[in-house]
Prior knowledge:
Helix content: 25-40%
Strand content: 15-25%
Largest sheet: 7 strands, parallel
CATH topology of the largest domain: Rossmann fold
Distance between the termini: 49 Å
Shape: globular
Radius of gyration: 21 Å
Number of helices: 9
CATH class of the largest domain: Alpha Beta
Number of strands: 16
Amino acid sequence: MVLVFLESSNHKIKKNSLEVITYGKKIAKANNGKLIGIHFGALDDSDSCNKYGLDKLFILNEPVFEVFDSRLYTKAIKAVYLAENCQFAFFGFNLNGKALSARLAAALDGGLVNGANSFADLNGGFKVQKTIYSGKAIATYQIVAQHKILSIASNTVSIEENPSTCEVVNFNSGIAASEVKVKKIKEEKVAGEIPLAEADLVVSGGRGLKGPENWGMIEDCAKIIGAATACSRAVADAHWRPHHEHVGQTGGAIAPNLYIAVGISGAIQHLAGVSNSKTILVVNIDPEAPFFKAADYGVVGDAFEVMPKLNEALKKAKGV
């Protein structure tokens, strides 16, 4: 049996979780097993559950899970995992997924690989790959423990349909309210933007834009192609852009199909967060900028001259 942890937005399963379902379905089929999903909170997405191959879905909608607490979530996940006689557990490679996969591996004395970006090779063992050294190398790991746990990097898997009839179980974990140790004080949601973790296209800017007043060209480009916006750490630290847009070693790690970096030198710390991008386009006035070594395409030029022309070309191509 394979267990997959699902996350949702507005009661709909997130794209990364659909990728995890596809990954899990392949492993379940290879082992003649079933795919079990677990979701905390209300979920109104039966179409996705049946469309992408879940055989069974556990819904945990108790008050104790209203605030994310990796300790309590792991306790409940472990209970479902053992009750269903699972041998595999897969998570998305994000903040929640990394926290839960590590705790579950420790609780089960299992093997863990975080950030897997290949399907597991089941011939002669359970082997997966991931990038290391900020994307400069690829490492192969073999999990020899009985319980095999992965967090799967975004855009590793092409989502595939596997029609099924999903049984939905409203599960009561039995966790008492007295066990809750985390309380939500305030919540602020960013509305009207494409979440970075879910974005297929990202346009990012750095110190080369010289100030927040020049961010219009980045936002225009993102709007034209339907992309999310991001920034380097220096930009976030200078408060030119909000910190949730910061990508890099100390920010978010993303893996879009296209990453456009404008006015970013490409230090190793930044590359650590974007090296898994399928395609990287760099615009920089400095031909010696390190980012060009990691780029698939590069434009040596002044962003203030290049970006307006690029945006016009994109508008024509899009028929805008």
